[in-house]
Every structure is written in C-alpha cells, then in structure tokens.
Write a structure and sequence with these properties.
Blueprint lengths: L1 H8 L3 H15 L3 H19 L4 H30 L12 H16 L6 H25 L5 H19 L5 H23 L4 H15 L15 H9 L3 H18 L7 H26 L11 H14 L1
Helix pairs in contact: 2-4, 3-4, 4-6, 5-6, 5-7, 6-7, 7-8, 8-12, 11-13, 12-13
Length: 317
C-alpha cells in the first residue's frame, strides 16, 4: 500500500528524470558516462536500504534508460569510425576516431575512477578498441596519399601511447597488440622505403650468394668471371660517399612528406633507417672479407661516414 501510494504521489519522478537524462544527452554525447556512474551509485545506495522500495524500483528503471543511452553512445562512436572519410589529397596523420577514443578514455577514466559499475565501461572499451583497430586497418588499406605502413605505424603508436599512459587493465592485451603492430609497420616502412640504397652492389652480392648456394666455396667465388675482383671494384666505384649522401638526403625528404607532425616519429624512423643501412653495409663487408680475402678491397665510405651522413641530413632539415 505504501508503494502504491508513493507511485501516485510521485508518478512524475521517473518521466522527469528521463527527460533530464535526454536533455543531458542532447547537450553532450558523453553525458551518459556521468549518468551511468551517478545512477548506479544511487541505485546501489537505495537497494542497500530496501531493495523493494519505491525509490529502488524507480531509480532502477531510470538506470535501465541510462544504460541504454550509454550503449547507444558506444554504438554511435563505432558507426562514426565506420563512416570516416579521408582526403585523397593530403596525408592521413592521426585518424579522428583514434583521437576521439583517446578523449573518451581520458574522460571515462576520470568519471569512473571510484565507480561501483566498472564492468559496463570495460565491455565498452573492448568493443571500441576492436572497432578502432579494424577501421585503422581499413583506412590504411584504402589510403592513396600516405603509404599503408605509415598510417598503421603512426596510429598504432598513438593508440599504444594512450593505453600505456592511461593504464586501462582490461585493455592490456590490446596495448601489447598495438605496440606489436606499430613496431612491425615501422620495420616494414623502413625496409620498403630504404629498399636497396646500393642497388647494383646488392645485385652483385645476390649473385655471389647464389653461387655459394650452388656449391662454390666462398674463397673461390672471385675466380668466377662475373664476380672477380675487377668486377667488384667496378661496382664499388659507382657508390662514392657523395652519391650515397645525396641518395639519403632525397630519402629523408620523401619520409618527411609521408609522416605527420603531431606524432613526431620522423627521428625514430630516420634512426631505424640508419640501423638498417648499417646492417646492409656490414653484410656487404662480411661477404667481401669471406669471398675476397686479402684483396684489400673496401667500400668507398665507412660506417663512421654513414653515421655522419645521417646525422648531418637530420640536422640540416
């Protein structure tokens, strides 16, 4: 009887609360996060006093509406990701939905810091991050102006940084996956962009390695007409230090055009390219030492020269 009487006296409370919630959602699309925490707390408090009370029942009904609005907010974000359009004329950079996820997570972590209802947020996080991952890959595959590896590298670096900073425990696996994708695509971009900076030398030594694979002993390769010492010297002469530096300078300009400023990965990429270039150089040196022992043949530039080229190019731009 008391509950029946309360329903008659306060029959407007539930619709009024629902109207207030609807107004909040119109003003701010993330309003449902705040309301979910607040209403969950009020329901939890009321149920501790009397789970069957008028207040518990009314607030419980309102909480259902709030939860529905929260789910709509998450679905709306996922839909925006799926509908994103990128310019064909400018570089991609950090995608808007990646930045929006960061803003959402920062706000959510503040609102839910001491919340009783964390499970709803954690489920939403997993849905959102999977959609972010999937749509970064989709945009990267469709990108015309920016190489796929750059779109993947920059955006997954941003995601990894966000998840590392916010320390969202339910997304630990996704944080590790983002790091893995970032490093994989950084390496892929470095190798594809650097290519074979000493192409003819590369081609020459591929022939040397093919002979060794066919059974020719390494120290006897120099007796092969196409791979004798004179042929090697001829190829090495095509790569004086000045030419190598010019090629690297053009490469730096190309990389600079691909990368966006906000993620600041230019120096990271350039350093990785330096490491890859030195790795190739050491590979050639090793082959010369094994296949042309005692010949005195060396490259026309040293590792120290390479370090100087990379450093001076980075400083001059």
């Amino acid at each position: 009887m008391v509950r029946l009487m309360m329903n008659k006296i306060f029959q407007s409370i539930e619709p009024e609360l629902n109207s207030l919630i609807a107004l909040g959602d119109k003003i701010d699309s993330f309003h449902s996060l705040y309301m979910l925490v607040k209403m969950s707390h009020h329901v939890w408090t009321a149920e501790n006093v009397d789970p069957a009370s008028f207040l518990s029942t009314t607030l419980g009904n309102v909480l259902v509406t709030v939860k529905r609005n929260f789910d709509k907010c998450i679905s709306g974000q996922i839909k925006q990701m799926e509908e994103v359009k990128i310019s064909k004329k400018s570089k991609v950079g950090i995608l808007p939905f990646v930045t929006r996820f960061e803003e959402f997570a920062e706000l959510a972590e503040t609102i839910f810091r001491n919340a009783e209802r964390r499970g709803d947020l954690d489920k939403a996080y997993v849905k959102l991050i999977r959609a972010v991952f999937m749509n970064v890959e989709k945009v990267a595959s469709e990108s015309q102006k920016t190489p796929r590896d750059v779109v993947m590298m920059e955006n997954f670096h941003h995601i990894f940084s966000t998840l590392s900073r916010l320390k969202i425990s339910c997304l630990d696996a996704e944080r590790r996956e983002a790091k893995h994708k970032y490093t994989d695509h950084l390496q892929s971009y470095v190798i594809n962009s650097l290519g074979q900076p000493l192409e003819k030398l590369n081609h020459f030594f591929e022939g040397v390695e093919a002979r060794v694979a066919q059974g020719v002993r390494e120290e006897e390769v120099s007796y092969q007409l196409a791979f004798n010492k004179q042929e090697l010297r001829k190829v090495i002469k095509e790569y004086p230090g000045k030419e190598v530096k010019r090629g690297l300078d053009n490469l730096y300009k190309k990389v600079d055009k691909h990368l966006c400023e906000e993620e600041s990965l230019l120096q990271v990429v350039w350093h990785s390219m330096q490491d890859e270039f030195i790795r190739q150089y050491k590979h050639f040196e090793g082959l010369i030492g094994r296949c042309y022992p005692g010949s005195g043949i060396t490259m026309e530039f040293t590792i120290q020269d390479i370090l100087e080229y990379f450093s001076s190019i980075a400083q001059s731009h």
